[in-house]
Amino acid sequence: MIDFLINIIIGAVLGLFGGLLGIGGGLFAIPTLSLMYGMDQQLAQGTALVMVVPNIVLGMYKYNQRNKIQWRTAVLLGSCAFVLSWFGALIAIDLDHKVMRQIFIGFLIFIAVWNLLQMLAKRTTQGLHDAPWPYFAGLGSLGGFLGGLFGVGSAVIATPVLTLFFGASQVVAQGLSLAIAVPTTMSTLATYSWHNQVDWTTGIAMAIGGVLTVSYGVRAAHSLPQSALKAIFSIFVLLSAVLLYGQL
Asked: Are 56 and 24 in contact (CB under 8 A)?
């Protein structure tokens, strides 16, 4: 019972950061499960998804309340992401867990550096550009594949792309990116579960905690400067990469 309560508290902290950064908390849950519970990479990714699914559903609802999501674009992004996420998840399941962790660390470093560079880039944020549908389809497909491969990552990739190349503000991009993350995480969770790579007891406890706090993170995201959100995100991602590297 004590362990279950501790996992709820951990999930609450991760849910807060997930809502703040529009990523569902999974990007930080995976290193937490690896470092604190000694889970291998695939089991950590599968367990984190149990927490992520309700967090991103609630997060998308809260973001839509404050900044109406363009559902036509969201459906296109989510549909393409759903299809490609299966392929990414199947590849991840078959990889050696140490190799998978090395790839994940490289992914963390890449997205952290990318976000830091984006802080220096000039961009317009007057509104989401009306780009041709293949651009959104490509973004959804890439996000879905990475989401399936790493258990997280679809929203992490989509958010900076939407701000840098499609003119969306940070909070609008984070809300729209969750439309990719919802179908991606659901399909990926099903795949990991089918291959017995999910600790349901730990995941459910963390999910309870995450649901209790994710809305507070979303509220905070709308009050902080965009540069601060990017800086917070990059710092925590780099810290996670360093800690995981120390475990190799």
From this structure: yes
